[in-house]
Amino acid sequence: MIAAQLAELLGAKQVSVNADTLAAYRFDRWCLKHWQDWRGEALDAPACVVRPRGSAEVQAVVRFSAEHNVAIVPWGLGSGVCGGIEPQPDQILIDMSAMNRVLSIDEENLLLTVEAGINGLVAEEAVAARGLTIGHWPQSIGISSVGGWVSTRASGQFSTAYGNIEDIVYAIEMVLPDGELVTLGKAPRAAAGPDLRHLALGAEGTHGVVTSVTLSLRRQPETQRFSAWYCADMASGFRAQREIVQQDWRPPVMRQYDASEVARLFPDYVQDEQCLILLVHEGPAPRVDAEIHAVESIMVELGLDPADAAAAEGWMSHRNNVPEWRDLLEQGLIADTIEVSGTWSQIDAIYEDVVAALKTVPDCVNASAHSSHVYRSGINLYFTFACMPEDASAMDARYLESWDRALTSTASAGGGIAHHHGAGRLRRDYLRHDLGENGLALLRKLKQAIDPQGLLNPRNLLPPEAPDEST
Prior knowledge:
Blueprint: H1 2-10, E1 15-16, H2 19-24, H3 31-38, E2 48-50, H4 55-68, E3 72-75, E4 92-95, E5 102-106, E6 111-115, H5 120-128, E7 132-133, H6 146-152, H7 159-162, H8 165-168, E8 169-175, E9 181-184, E10 209-216, E11 218-219, E12 223-231, H9 234-246, E13 253-257, H10 259-265, E14 275-283, H11 285-301, E15 305-307, H12 310-318, H13 325-330, E16 334-343, H14 344-359, E17 364-371, E18 374-375, E19 378-387, H15 395-412, H16 431-450
Helix pairs in contact: 9-14, 14-15
């Protein structure tokens, strides 16, 4: 009945109840759901999939939702890895991928406006043809949507110089849960009250449906060069990165790999169990020359040894190549990556504690880390774990225990438990570590005010409320 009414509202071609189509939208790229599907577990599918072609049609679907009290799950391109998509049989899944147009490229003001469902790489290629760049390069750029970047507060590989998505977004158009359309953001900078763009940034489809995004662009860099350095341990590498960024140098890419990841990812550059730092320098040629010289002085002063810059250049050429979950599952492995962050005074303990905690998980065969996003006040870490239980039925438990130990250890060391993949259903029960109980209560109040019926991506992001024991 839901599908029939929506087909009458939008047209039959925009609404699908085909079994294969519904099955394709049961989950995103969350590893745990791929494992459950691979082993044959029955997973819920939405009542129907709706593909709007413009903001007006999104408004029509959302108004239908509000009128009939039917929940909506927004879908970008399905690249999320934290379980932000888990539609139920009585819910509408709204697939934004048909809204994929470039609406305008403003070369004078360096602004790009696109529909939210556009593939990120398609958007980048559109501005690259004009000698411009978005400067946002998540590993998922070829499979993610611009609306998804906004919804998960995404970060790109060049963020150290160019910022994260919140630094690149100029304006956001969004359909609210009552069907009203709002445009958030108007000027290069504003003091017109709180920045309402942040109601959409990181909300993971719980506050509204993002329909278009305006991004602030850059001119493509004049030159690009690479450098690489060995450090005796992660702590000495962290100190070097801190010195570089606090001296106000901004290599857009600084990545530091522990010895385990060097052996696994850069076997041609292994040297005496040392860690490896890769840097990409780009911009006006004189500035790049000065930056490379300054970085070299810092590294030498701190006792780091030069490595072959070809390691960084090689990373650049294959940086987005990652195995599919099914490839790992067929080898008997359950694995994932966990990105966290901390201040410079916290990061040594976070690294040591999380790696140690992961290694205590039964059947763990890998626990390693690298850093990939650097700030004046701290840095992120990207942990990789893999477990290979003899009994495949233990995979769920090993996976969830690994996540629990990593996030709990990070929080105990004072760090932030989510850097750029969002929270979804995977991290939602750990948000109290970052937001505090009062912060969670405030986020609930915002959700209630914006979406009083609770129809936008329910059970995502916010942990379930504890039952009231007084009743």
